[in-house]
Specification:
There is one protein chain. The chain is of the alpha/beta class and 240 residues long. Helix content is 37%, strand content 23%. The strands form three sheets. Strands 5-4-1-6-10-7-11 form a seven-stranded mixed β-sheet, sandwiched between helices. Strands 2-3 form a two-stranded antiparallel sheet.
Length: 240
């Protein structure tokens, strides 16, 4: 069995309101992307493909991959205009004999070995799974005018995270199909926001939900950095 982790770090981080791209901002004295790479480096995953912004390959190789000795990073590739472009390019850079692919947002620094192992067991049984947690709040679906239209049953509503894990050949073929049909999807107003949507749109395969962690937050805004610092401090105290 061979596994690869596609770690996405090609975002611009516009909502962070910083001159430094969020994946390189410091968290606990290290670049944000360090934590995701460290988790996969120390896990059962065989290879890591790191997807970065245009022009960042040399910087990332010298200042992150080589500096912190992430030996499992097999390749560093430039991403595309949208997230799904970056995922496809990352998948295409992996070895063709991979069995399973973990797709992870590098801006989620608190992925851990327990999450990775739960995901691996689920994907071996189901072929497709995503990490998430049941929502704590009531969710409202809004109409076009900003009024509440419906309220889904909270018992069946999950907050979706990453990694999202799939049979490698299946997800690569589906992303290639997405690339061919991108124009059609845009015309229909369909916005692909995560990897499970690609499976859901092009197949009738069910995607298994796997427990992640409420700590597995995505860093998007300055407030998220403050929350991440608090989580990191709490985790460090537990280790001590």
């Amino acid at each position: 069995m061979k596994t690869v982790a596609i770690v996405l770090a090609a975002g611009s981080g516009s909502r962070m309101k910083s001159d430094i791209k969020k994946q390189y901002m410091e968290l606990g004295g290290k670049p944000l992307i360090y934590y995701s790479l460290k988790a996969f480096e120390e896990s059962i995953v065989d290879d890591i493909i790191l997807v970065v912004s245009r022009g960042d390959i040399d910087y990332v190789r010298a200042n992150i991959v080589e500096k912190y000795k992430f030996d499992k990073v097999k390749d560093i590739v430039e991403g595309g205009l949208y997230r799904y472009h970056s995922v496809r390019l990352g998948l295409m850079a992996a070895d063709a004999d991979c069995d399973y692919a973990f797709i992870h947002d590098g801006a989620r620094p608190f992925v851990n070995d327990e999450i990775i192992m739960r995901s691996l067991e689920a994907v071996k049984q189901n072929g497709a799974c995503v990490v998430g947690m049941p929502v704590k709040d009531t969710i409202k679906i809004a109409d076009e005018d900003g009024f509440a239209k419906e309220t889904p049953d909270r018992a069946h509503t999950w907050l979706i995270q990453t990694p999202q894990v799939f049979s490698y050949n299946m997800i690569l073929d589906l992303y290639k199909k997405l690339d061919r049909e991108e124009g059609t999807l845009m015309e229909k107003g369909i916005n692909i926001t995560d990897d499970a949507m690609v499976v859901e749109y092009f197949t009738d395969k069910k995607v298994k939900l796997v427990e992640g962690s409420y700590n597995n937050i995505k860093i998007t805004t300055p407030e998220d950095i403050q929350a991440a610092e608090a989580i990191l401090n709490s985790l460090n105290k537990q280790v001590i």
